[in-house]
Write a structure and sequence with these properties.
Elements (H helix, E strand, L loop, with lengths): L13 H6 L5 H52 L6 E2 L14 E2 H4 L7 H5 L13 H4 L19 E6 L32 E5 L17 E3 L10 H6 L16 H10 L17 E6 L4 E5 L4 H8 L13
Parallel strand pairs: 3-5
Antiparallel strand pairs: 1-2, 3-4, 4-6, 6-7
């Protein structure tokens, strides 16, 4: 029936007409419940899309680092040393000269202003370098990392866990002068740089220690590795944003208490899930899974072991 225009029928009270024009409490609760369920279903998908975008950005950061490394090598005929120091092997104690590879390639990453503010005549831990070395550079920060770390990427110094030495098997070693011709296994089969969570502030991107150097002596995201183990400890104070708050004395206190071992460099890790992004010597960036065969992973970290690695193995 079509209701005619005009005032309400006299048989209806005003209260009845008002009651029929809105939602009941039950209807409102049902609508809210449906919306909540839809949001709960959509949220994981939205988070997954965001993580894909962050992982793409992380890959782009590694590709830019790769271009900078090649430009440095074209200019100097060798890749930058992993760390420079007057004596070795190098551990994580905040002493010595210890400028690392990431500081050397800054001009090739359009960061010459930061580079010019570093005084390379004194050590990386010197107070005079603290401001410049404490600048957070987006190109060195993985967007997936939950920590406001100064360094999310580390060069590979070798295939075994040990302090950083001049005779290590990786590309970025103590006082190294590794040329492209030294990549006997081939650039496409040699890891250059990989993800690190950057949980423990060893000093940031300017320093050549665990902040910017790691090895394949551990599995990717190995629960036993120092930074992964620390990340899993609820309430651990270093999980807070570090920014310019690197404190050498606080780091030394962790060593003295035995909570950290200064001579353990650690492996690669990420917040991308079941693996981490890696830059290879041919300029490509690839995602290696946690469960990659240990022998294959170590072979990729060694620049000249002569082992043949099947491309399908990683």
């Amino acid at each position: 029936l079509i209701r005619p225009f005009g005032p309400p029928s006299p048989s209806r009270g005003e209260g009845d007409d008002r009651a029929s024009s809105g939602f009941t409490l039950v209807e409102l609760l049902v609508v809210v419940g449906v919306i909540s369920v839809l949001i709960a279903l959509l949220l994981p998908a939205v988070q997954a899309v965001r993580e894909v975008a962050r992982r793409v950005q992380c890959t782009n950061n590694l590709l830019q680092i790769g271009v900078a490394l090649e430009n440095y090598a074209a200019s100097s005929r060798v890749y930058p040393p992993g760390v420079v120091d007057h004596q070795g092997p190098v551990d994580n104690r905040p002493t010595g000269y210890r400028f690392g590879w990431a500081a050397r390639i800054l001009p090739f990453l359009e960061q010459r202003n930061v580079y010019n503010h570093l005084n390379f005549h004194i050590g990386a831990f010197a107070e005079e370098n603290r401001t410049a070395a404490g600048v957070r550079l987006n190109g060195y920060s993985c967007p997936s990392s939950p920590y406001n770390s100064l360094s999310s990427y580390a060069g590979c110094h070798g295939d075994v866990e040990k302090p950083i030495g001049a005779d290590d098997s990786g590309v970025f070693v103590l006082n190294g002068r590794v040329a492209r011709s030294d990549l006997v296994d081939g650039p496409a089969f040699t890891i250059f740089v990989g993800d690190v969570r950057g949980v423990i502030p060893y000093g940031g991107w300017a320093v050549g220690n665990s902040a910017t150097l790691r090895n394949a002596g551990w599995r990717i995201n190995d629960d036993r590795a120092p930074d992964v183990a620390q990340a899993r400890r609820a309430g651990y104070p270093w999980n807070q944003p570090v920014g310019r708050g690197f404190d050498p004395a606080a780091l030394e206190a962790l060593f003295e208490s035995g909570e950290l071992k200064p001579d353990v460099i650690g492996g690669f890790s990420s917040s991308h899930g079941a693996g981490a992004n890696f830059l290879f010597g041919d300029g490509s960036a690839r995602f290696l899974k946690n469960m990659i065969d240990r022998r294959v992973f170590r072979a990729l970290a060694d620049r000249s072991d002569g082992e043949i690695v099947d491309g399908d193995a990683y």
